[in-house]
Amino acid sequence: MTEIAPIASPGFDGPWLTDPQHHAWLMQDARRQLRFFDASLRSDGGFDVLDVDGTPLPRAGQELHTTARMIHSYMLGKAIGHPGADRMIDAGMDYLWTRHRDAKWGGYVWGVDGETVTDGTKLAYGHVFVLLAAASARLAGHPEADRLHADIAEVIERHFWAEETGLLIEEYTRDWYAFSFYRGMNSNMHGVEAMLAAHEATGEALWLERAGRILDFFTARMAPDYDWRIPEHYSVQWEVDPTYSGNPMFRPAGTTPGHSLELARLLLQHWDLAGRPATGADTRARHLIERALGDAWLHGGGLAYTVDFDGSVLSRDRYWWPVSEGIGALASLIKLDGAEAARESDEDWYRRLWRYAETAFVDTARGGWFPEVDADGRPAARQFQGKPDIYHALQADLYPLAPGLSRQAGALMQGRAAAPFG
């Protein structure tokens, strides 16, 4: 394979989304990531977490979102013609149905290791990723996609969707005992992602309507009241819990700029699918993006993981996924205005994020992205070991290549990412 460098054409003055070399570099990195993560597939159909050099790390149970995200990621890989994508999708679909799926109690357990359940918790966060996997499998033409979709849709309806609030309930024990009163933004945000994918894959209007209700709560009700920083943690009555501090990765204290960037992209996707109504969704998305970048960009580069409600930085940890989501959000703003008419500040931010990602996170020698770096941009391993994720970084590569704000996966499946666009 011929190496394509640098990240964009030297001296190119136009928007990077119209630069053929930038498109070629994105596609090259996507293919490099997929080749790296091919090695995660085990002989029993599960997926190993890989060390930075691609060797499997010791097994500690396979988490539900990992299995589901691999299906989604390799659907995107199939869309760009990655050899062997089908075997990864097949393995993930079988593992979901025969290992994660709980034949006794229904739903999908969080952690498994072969036939052993390592964590039987039933989380909204994990179940919405199963919905995403079902939608992705349908786009990929998998024969068991409809079965998985029907099952997960029934589980979400029965246990997780609260019609009175238009939001998702968070967590249960394996036998469906609601053991906490916690409510959270993160699971609902990924619920929006999954519901929009389900709508795009099936045409079912219910998913679009429910995604809209979740988005309205967080972006039209909560964000404006908190100066466009979205509270993460809530009580059972959906009252903000400003002092909550839980799991340092999934439920950290404060607000999470990376989630604002992700939710802004999803807000634009929903708005586009809904026919671009005059609801101010596009303006809200811009407010979220500009606030997140303004708060979180650190001296020396990278995005702070968390900030307080006044915008002061709480955690300076530099992870790959907020930068990935920033790339997707800025690409969405540039597409919204048209690449040639996009704001100069949007183009500047898009380039800044990609330059930082290229120098700090992208492993051009072996493939995949380092998940965290220190203040000097060197790989670190405080929170993560190895390279535990392809999902965020692969989307950062491929979403700028799709021409629209919505139906991006479908566009890639139809081969509509071959040429730069204006």
UniProtKB/TrEMBL annotation:
Cross-referenced Gene3D superfamilies: 1.50.10.10
Keyword Isomerase: yes
SUPFAM superfamilies: Six-hairpin glycosidases
Keywords from the named record: Isomerase
Biological processes, Gene Ontology terms: carbohydrate metabolic process
Pfam families: GlcNAc_2-epim
GO MF, any single term: isomerase activity
Transcription regulation is among the record's keywords: no
Family: Belongs to the N-acylglucosamine 2-epimerase family.
Protein name, UniProt field: AGE family epimerase/isomerase
